[in-house]
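The instructor's notes for this session suggest beginning with a concrete chain rather than abstract definitions. Hand out the sequence below and ask the class to guess, before any prediction is shown, which regions might be ordered.
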Amino acid sequence: MASVHFDKKVEDSERPPGIIGLVVYPMTTAAKQFARSLWRPSTIVYPMRERLEDPEMRKKVRVESGQPIGVGEIWDNYRGVHALNLKTCISCNLCAFSCPDTCIEMVPVDTGDGKTKRCPQIDYGKCSFCGFCSDACPEGCLTMTPNYTITTSSRANMVYSPQRLHEVFQTKLPMNPTRIELPKNEDSILLDQDLCIGCNACARDCPTKCITMIDIPKPVPKAGEKIPKRIWKEPTVNDAECVRCGTCISVCPKECLYWGMHR
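After discussion, reveal the predicted structure:
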């Protein structure tokens, strides 16, 4: 077996020998670092006055290269506390459906006009900040911010209600970009006409109201033929307004709606 020889380069240490190297040299180095910190602080006063997610604070904090910390003014890929726009939420349930930690629960929220809708409530005691929920949100109303201060002495305070998430949205913190436009190869909602009974469940529960029930002609029975009992209406889906939440598929009693590509 061939042997490999490693040459170790030994450099002379800058530390002087004796008591000077053990005591005086370390104290001199500490004094130099302290004097340097007077004109170029290496720490921030957190959390009382200075916060890294504040764009103005990022301009003041510098690294050795002299550039601001992060990418531009914020960390564009940072995943912190969520922000929810209650006005644009359509209660599609995609955030809760895509959550791998099952930490999102859809709870009723008063819309102010005597009606209620279901919006996400997040338990940060379970959340892994994966970002799947914000990626799945078709309206871009659930985003993630650079806010990372969610420590508390009570487990109950880790649960953020929709109203509390909306307060985060109102603080106007920088938010991560979200995908709103659907890809061209996205599946569509297709209908098996032979199974449909025209019950209107899909159009009733569609969060974007993109399903319309249209009248279909009632067939004329042949001699001895029995016409099936059904409502002679059929759903049609507006692909431009559909957000692919799958609510219509889940509520269809006859499983006549399914995912597929238009031919």
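Then share the key points. The chain has a mean pLDDT of 79. The helical segments are 18-39, 55-60, 94-98, 132-136, 162-170, 201-205, 247-251.
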